[in-house]
Each structure stands twice: as structure tokens, then as C-alpha cells.
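Hi W.,

Here's what went into the run:
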Amino acid sequence: MGCQCYIIQSGKRNRLGSRVMERAIELKRSRKIDWVAFGFIGPAFLLFTMFIIFPTIFSAYYSFTSWDGISPVIKFVGMDNYKEIFTSARFGNALKNTIVLTVIISVFENLIALVLALMVDNIRWFKNFFRSSFYIPVLISGIVSGFIWKIMYNYNFGTFNFLLHAVGLDSVKKDWLGNPAYTLFSIAVVLIWKGAGYYMIIYLASLQSVSTDLIEAAQIDGASAPQRFRYITVPMISGAFTINFTLSLINGLKVFDQINVMTDGGPGFTSETLVYLLYKVGFNEGRQGFGTAVGIMLLLIILILNTVQQKFLRSREVQL
Amino acid sequence: MERAQKKLKWTDVVLFVIVIFVAFLFLYPVFFAIMSGFKSNGDILKNPMALPNSFYVQNFFDLFHKSDFFTAIVHSLTLTIVSEILIVFIVPMSAYGIERRPSKVTRLIYIYFLAGMMIPFHLYMFPLFKELKMMNMFGNMVGPVVIYISGSIAFGSLLYCSFLKGIPLEIEEAAMIDGSSPFQTFWLITFPLLGPCTASMVILNGLGIWNDYLMPYLVLPSGRAKTITVEIASFVGQYTARWDIVFAGTVISMIPAMIVFILFQKYFVKGITAGAAKG
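Here's what came out:
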């Protein structure tokens, strides 16, 4: 959609010989500095560079040091932090937890979001109300959602065990967050609940962009409902799927608030993810050099995911 | 129109019943939190699923009495409002510069912003705090505001750039011919046309700032209340036996976000879909 708009727009620009554009093109030819553009972009560029790019570059540097975050003396230790990353059991454990949590979240978030979008798209009454209901959890902060579910998961007074007790299933009662076998799973449920509504909005938008003409034509040609779904709806929403899956993977990697409130990385290290490990070594153990090295690994994972997404999107566009 | 005339099918009713059930599951935790905010601690423990007996507001009195929650509310509001005003001043201008004065440099800057969007905050927070300390922005409200503005630039530029493509140039040209400067043209002619985009960005960013936890927790001065979210997180550790107070806090934290959502729903949807289409 956006792409088409742009083509039409640029066609118009050429036809009318826009003065603004002409001026810009003149400037480009004359190789003068466009001070007006600089005036427009300058403040944003400056802030962005100073408070995001500079600290990122310094992170890359600190990842080769044993900096504690306080002392003015910063000792260069070469590859030591990275050696520790590849040999320490704690990093391996955090990486494993991150992958498990992220994959569970992404798969179920997308599955549920897609089902929700299909339901909202097809429902006959109160469409808006239901769309809002599924989106409400997105509005709640990570800390508050973590707290609410922490209480619901509580062994003695929580909603889940209360319900199980009420229906006589006391044997199934569990320490949802305290038992290492269930901790990550219980955290994932909270994140899926909180995130699904966001991805539902994106699926819904792409479902609604499927033209009804196309579906009616298929109907006349005798395509059954499952066939229509498989051959019209699925290809149309595949772009949204790629975007959503990547977004949910990246957001899954960055989960922090819920873990902080619900388990603090525990019991033991069972819910310590990469971000949580980074935070703990940085602020509790005074090893910010090592923390930034963990951060660099996180960035690498995100870069890989983004590259894969771009590849997927591009190959899909060629097909369409 | 056609839809409304369609005959009622039994599948419609079945779907409706299923959706009601699913919506109930999604809303229950929120309902549970609000309900518990109006119950005494004993009632929350005795029967977590029961409705409040009466309109019980002691929790809220205790909350403001036992903690400095009022300061936290003021801090949250100040951070959100001040950051948003500055974001609205800075971000649309930058997108306008990128979109309306195209050159190799501006294209590079756009890519630079988008690439920066991938960097997770957790990666650069340690050096960032050091930098803030050197600039005297650590331990006061300036630091968080500056970080929120910087953090909103990439997504905001993306949103505004895609929106600007749909705004015809002719209006701006007419203003330019009448002798208005580029900055006047932007603020008086183009910016008002960007209203819906501004609303989307302000709402999505505002929600993020209102709900943010880690950064204000680390940057704001310790020893006193920080923001609503930070206060709630500290209660969880501090008042392990007084859930009622914490629930009162969560109600105060959730309600403004929900009111804004109900009033400005369509801007949420627009912002999310525009961001996803380009991201």
C-alpha cells in the first residue's frame, strides 16, 4: 500500500515539475550544504547520535575491559569477556532460557494473535468491543502485569490454585513460579497474554486489506472456505506474519520487567535470560564490562534476525 | 452494507459465544486487579475470585499515607508530558527534512535512524549512564527526558516519513510562492495536516513512557519516590504482606492508559499498522 502511494506521488511530482523538488535537485547538483535540511534534522540527529550511537560505540569498547561501572580506572582485558561468554555455564544457561522463552512466546503469540484477528474479523456483533478487549493487556506496564500474575500464580492464595481446589483437583495444584519445571512456562503465559493483542492489530489490518472482490470471485468459481483461506488469505497475510514473527522474537529477547517482578531470575538461575544476566552482572556484581559484552551478543542476535526477516520479505515480494 | 443484510447463520452465534469466552479470559486478570484494589487484604487472601463486599477505598488512603505515591504520580506525569512536548517539537521536523529535502545525505540519515532502532537499550545503558553523569543529567529529571526523546526519534521519523508521502506538495509550494520560509511552511502549513500521525506517535510513545520501568528506576535519584511503575515494583518487594496496597497502586497505574485508549483507539491502530508496514 505505502509503496504504491509513493509511486503515484513521485509520478505526480514529475508531471507537475514540483518547485520544492526542483530546488532540492538543484542543491544536489551544486553540492552545497543544504542548511535548511540541516536545521530541520539537526536536533534529532544530534540527540540520536549523542544518547544512542555514542554509548553503543562505547559499549563495544567496554566489552573488552573489566570496567566495574564506578571506578575511573578502566582496565583493558582483550577478549577475556568473550572467552568467558563462550565457556561459562551461566551464559549458556541464560542463552538457553532466552531461546526457550523467546520461541515459546513468538510461536504462541502469533498463533493466538492470528486466531484472535480471524475471530474479530468474522464476528457479527460488537466487533470494536472485542478488538479492544484483546488489546487492553497491551496497555498495562510490564511491572503491573507481572505483579497481577504473580499473585494469581501464588501457591496458597492465587487464583489458579484456588480454582483447582474448587473443582477438586488439588493434586494438580502447583507452585507455578517456584517450581523450576514450570517457571519459564508461567512467565511465557504472561507475556503471550500481554503481547497477543498487539500482533492481532497488525494481522487484522492485513486481513482487512484482502479485497472482498477476490474472495467473491473465488466463491463463484467454487472454492470452499478452507480453500479460500489457504489460497487467498494465507498469501495475503504472509507479509504480516514475517513482520510479526520477527517483532515478537526481538521483543521476546528484551523481556525484563516481568522477570524482575515475578522471579528475579530465579529460582536459582532458571529464569535468568540474557538481558537479566546483563542487568545482574552490571548492577549487582559490578561487572559492567562483562555486561556490555553480553549486550553485544544480544545485538548480534537481533541483527541476524532482522537480516533473515528482510530476506524473507524480499523473496515474498518477488512471488507476489 | 452487504454484511448487514446477510442472513443470520448458526455459525455466527457459535463464534459469538466462543469470542465472549476468550474475551473473558483476556480481561479477567485486569478485572481481578481492579477488583482486588477495592478489597481488604483479608478478603483478597480468603477468596481471590469474590467481588468486593462494599466500595472499600481504605487501600488508596493507605497507599498515599504509607508511601510517597503522590510524588510518583507527579513524576510520571511530568516525564510523560514534558518528553512528549519536546518529541512533537523535534521528531516531525526531522522527518520533514528527510522526506522533503531528499539528497544522499538525508537518505543516509534515514538509514542511520532505522539501523539505530535495532540497538537494544540494555546494550548501551551502562555507558549512557556514565555519559549522563558527566553531563550532570544523572539523578534528575533531565536525563530520562533526554533518553525518551532520543529513543523516539527512529520510530517517529519512520511514522512521519510514511505519512508525509501522502501529503500533496502543492499546498506547500503555494505557501513558498507567497514568500513563507521553509520553517514557517512546515509549522503553519504541513504540521497541522500531520495531526493524525502526531496523535498516533504521541499516544504510542506516551504509553511507553508511562509504563517504563528500568531506566527511571536507575536514573532518578534514590531515597524518594520515582515513578508510578518504579514505586509499584518496589512495593512488591517491600509490602509482601500488603497486596491490597499494591493493587491500589496498579489501579492508579492502569486507569489513565485505559481512558486514553478508549478515547483515541483509532490512533493506536493507525500507529501500530503504519509502524509495522515500514518496520
